[in-house]
Amino acid sequence: xxxLVTQYQAIKNEVDTAISSVIEKAQFINGPEVAxxxxxxxxxxxxxxxxxxxxxxxxxxxxxxxxxxKPGDEVITPxxxxxxxxxxxxxxxxxxxxxxxxxxxxxxDVNQIEAAITPKTKAIVPVHLYGQAxxxxxxxxxxxxxxxxVVEDNAQATGCDYxxxxxxxxxxxTIGNIGCTSFFPSKNLGCYGDGGALFxxxxxxAQQIRMIANHGQSKRYYHDVVGxxxxxxxxxxxxxxxxxxxxxxxxxxxxxxxxxxDNFFAKYEQIKTPIRGAxxxxxxHQYTLQLEGIDRxxxxxxxxxxxVPSMIYYPVPAHRQKMFSAFGSEATNLPITDWLTDRVIxxxxxTEMKEEQLKQxxxxxxxxxxxNE
Length: 373
Ligand SMILES: *Cc1c(COP(=O)(O)O)cnc(C)c1O
Prior knowledge:
Blueprint: H1 4-25, H2 32-45, E1 49-53, H3 56-66, E2 74-78, H4 83-91, E3 95-99, E4 121-124, H5 136-146, E5 149-153, E6 161-163, E7 169-171, E8 178-182, E9 196-200, H6 203-213, E10 217-219, E11 222-223, H7 234-245, H8 247-265, E12 271-272, E13 287-291, H9 296-305, H10 335-343, E14 344-347, H11 355-371
Parallel strand pairs: 2-3, 2-4, 4-5, 5-8
Antiparallel strand pairs: 1-9, 6-7, 8-9, 10-11, 12-13, 13-14
Helix pairs in contact: 1-7, 2-7, 3-4, 3-6
Pyridoxal-5'-phosphate is lined by residues 55-57, 81-82, 84-85, 127, 153, 155-156, 182, 184, 194, 196.
C-alpha cells in the first residue's frame, strides 16, 4: 500500500546524517531537533503552538484531558473512523456519541450533529478522513451555538488546506480548539517509528497540553494535574524535519496517483471514485473506492491472488465494535456508515508510485469486472 523504502532511498544521505548527528550528540529526548521541528511545523501549519507527543492516539487523549471534561460527558464523533479516535473518548470515562458520515466525503455529516447534542455534550471530534476535510465552518458554528469544544483528528490530513466560506485558508488541524495528528510511518507526514503532535492557537490550552504530556508538571518535580508521559524522540524529529520540507511535493505526488485512478475508473459505473469536495484540497492519505454491483470482498481476494495490495478501511465501524457495547452503541442507526463499511476498498497510493504499477493495479481490477460480467 505504501513504499517507504524507495522514499527513503531518495533522502537517504540527509536522513542518515541527521540521525547520526542525534546519536553522536546523545540528545535523544527533547533535544534541539525537537525544538526546531516544533518551530518549523508551527510555520508550516500557520498555528501558534505545536506540541509534539509520542503518537496520534496520545495526542487525542491529551487533547480531551486538556479540555477538563468530566466522566459521563458526551463527545460527538463519527463511527466511520480508525479506532483511536473513539477509543480515547471511552478510555477517559467519557461517552462517545456516534454520528453518521457523508457518503461523498466520508467525513461527519454536519446535518446530523445537532440532533445528537444533549445537555451532557461537551465536544465534537471530527475526523478528516482519508485526507479530506470535514465541513469545519459548519462544525465551528454548531460548536459556538452550543458552547462545545472541537478537537480535530487530523491524523490522515497533514498538509490539507481548508477553504473557509469567507475566502481565507487554514491548514486542517488548526481550526478547532485543538488539532491532533499522527506521524506513524505511513501517514502523509510520517517518521521512522511512532510520533504525534497537537496544534492550538490558544495559549492557555497550549500550556495545559504541555503540562499534561509531561506528567502534569508545571516546574521540575511539581506536578499540578494528573498527566502522562508522551514525548517525540529527537531521532524522529530529525526525520520529520527533512520530510516536512517535502510534504507538499509528497502530497502532490499522491494527487497525481489519484488523477490516474480517477481517469481509469471513469468509464466504470460500478465504481465510484473519491469525490473531491470544494471545501478543501484533498491530500489522498487513502484512495478509497465505493463499489456498487461488484462484490467488494471477492475483488479484495482476487487482487490478493495477483499480489496487488488493497485494504478495507475500515471493516467494522465503531458502533459495531465490542469495545463500545457497554454504551449500547450497536443500536445506533447509522445506515450510511454500515453501507460504506460493506462497499469501500482502498488502493495503493504513495509518493513513489510508477505508472507501470498503476497500470497493473487498474488492469487487474478491470479483469475482475470483465470476469464477472
Ligand atoms: C493513525 C490514526 C490515529 C492514531 O495515530 P497513532 O499515531 O497510530 O496513534 C488516529 N486517528 C486516525 C484517523 C488515524 O488514521
